Amino acid sequence: MILWGFLASLGAGLMTGVGALPVLFGREITRRTNDMMLGFAAGVMISASFFSLILPGIEEGEAIYGTTVAAALLAATGIALGALAVAGINRWVPHEHFVTGPEGADPGALSKLWLFILAITIHNFPEGMAVGIGFGGGDVTNGMSLATGIGLQNAPEGLAVAVALRGQGYGRLRSVWYATLTGLVEPIGGLIGVAAVSVSVYVLPVGLTFAAGAMLFIISHEIIPETHRHGHQNRATTGLLVGLILMMFLDVTLG
Question: Model-level pTM?
C-alpha cells in the first residue's frame, strides 16, 4: 500500500507538468478560460473532499468506535485540524500569489521564483497527502479515485502556473519545468500520508478528514476567490459544477 500510495501521488503530481506542456508550443489561454479551468479544479477538489475523504472517514470512524456520533465528532475534528494546518502554513510560510501578491512572514526575504514555488507547494502537498491516506486504509479503488480526480485538476493548475511564469519573463522550457516541480511535492505528501495511516488504523478517520479540511480551506481561501476576481464567475461556476460532477461520477463508478 505504501508503494501504491507513493506511485499514485507521483502520477497525480506529474499531471501538473502534462498540463503545462501547451506552453512549449506557444499556446496562450485567455483569462476567462483560465478562470473556468481553475473552477473545474475547485469542483474536483470539493467532490473528492466529500465523496473520497469525509464520507469514507466517517464510515471508518463508525467501524472503529461503533457510534455515528463519535465518528461525526472525529470527522469534524479532522476537518478543523486540516484547515487550521493550512491556515497556519499560509500565515507563516512566505509565498506569493499571482494576483494578490506576497503573503506570510517577511515574503520579501526570498526571490520571486521561490515565493511562487512555495505558494503552489502549499496547494499541492495536502492533495498528495490525501491520495496517500486514501491508499493507507487498504482501499485501492478509493485511492485510485482520488489520484485520478486530483490528477485531472492538476493539469489545468499546471497550465495556469506555467502561463503565469511566462508572464513573469521565464522561458518556455523553464516555465514547464518549474510547473512540473511544483507537482512533485505531491508524492512526498502521499508517502507521509500512506505511512502515517499504515502505522495505526486509528489514524485513518482523522487522516482522511484532515486531508479534506486542508483541501476545502484551499478551495475557499484561494481558488474560488481567484476565479471570481475578473468578472468570469459564470464560466468559473460552470467549470466548478463540471469538475464536481465528473469527480462524483469517477468516485461512484470506480468505488
Answer: 0.73
